[in-house]
Design brief:
The protein is an alpha+beta fold. Helices cover 53% and strands 16% of the residues.
């Protein structure tokens, strides 16, 4: 009597046509590990692959250090080689840049202001892409943890337990004149609105940031420029940026389902 797993294994052997299918299955399994699904049984249920197939692919990935198995729990996790691939931030996030560039450029063409794509890794804000204004001025963002809207929007995407840890370990010097309670209020406002607008971090400068969902770490779009130019059109800036963030998130989500 052939059980269901054996039937599925036979079927998979029959339909196996090319290495492309194996790559697709390996990608689906690694996506599970990224989404905190680590046991063979749970990966099998999520991917609709038999446990035998999942185990075979995991062992192949383990040999190449893409994954490793915890010897105690017998669960699988992303391995050393996967981590090495992510060390170069610009290369690791080219996918996000590619999905975001057309919308970033669209926002820049509408408002002709400093437009940026940022992510947060650990507690560090990393700029992935910047399109500078055509106007004769420049904006230099200081290397501190909290600088206006983009840092608030990035942090607001964190779970509450992570936020508490981060806020409890902030060097007060990096916060300038802003205290932790003010930051908490700003984070709450950013979550409620779905965007954040800041002024006064640099005199005469206004910044608008919106979150980008469906990415592996917090990400945000920002427009920064002279307050005298941005304030009169702030509502339009927010509306267009929310529209772009939604389009980018849909692209990311669509790619993630493949």
């Amino acid at each position: 009597m052939i059980n269901n797993n054996e039937k599925q294994d036979i079927h998979e052997k029959e339909v196996r046509k090319s290495p492309v299918q194996s790559i697709s299955r390996a990608a689906a399994i690694m996506r599970c590990l990224t989404n905190d699904i680590h046991s063979v049984k749970d990966i099998s249920a999520t991917t609709s692959l038999s446990m035998g197939t999942v185990h075979r692919i995991l062992k192949a990935l383990e040999e190449e250090e893409f994954v490793f198995q915890d010897p105690v729990e017998r669960k699988y996790y992303l391995g050393l080689f996967t981590s090495q691939l992510s060390l170069n931030q610009s290369n690791a996030h080219k996918w996000l840049i590619a999905k975001s560039f057309s919308e970033l450029n669209r926002i820049w063409e509408i408002f002709n202001e400093f437009t940026a794509l940022d992510i947060e890794v650990g507690v560090q804000t990393i700029n992935l892409l910047t399109i500078r204004s055509k106007s004769n001025y420049s904006i230099t963002r200081p290397p501190v943890l909290f600088f206006g809207s983009e840092s608030i929007v990035l942090l607001a995407q964190r779970p509450d337990n992570e936020l508490e840890v981060i806020l409890n370990h902030i060097n007060p010097k990096s916060m300038g004149k802003v205290d932790k309670e003010t930051i908490k209020k700003q984070l709450k406002q950013a979550r409620k609105q779905g965007y954040y607008v800041s002024t006064g971090k640099t005199e005469g400068i206004m910044a608008v940031s919106v979150p980008i969902s469906h990415y592996l770490c917090p990400a945000a779009l920002s427009v920064v420029g002279p307050e005298i130019r941005i304030k009169p059109v702030a509502a339009k800036v927010v509306a267009e940026m929310l529209k772009s963030a939604k389009i980018i998130a849909e692209k990311l989500n669509k790619s993630d389902r493949k």
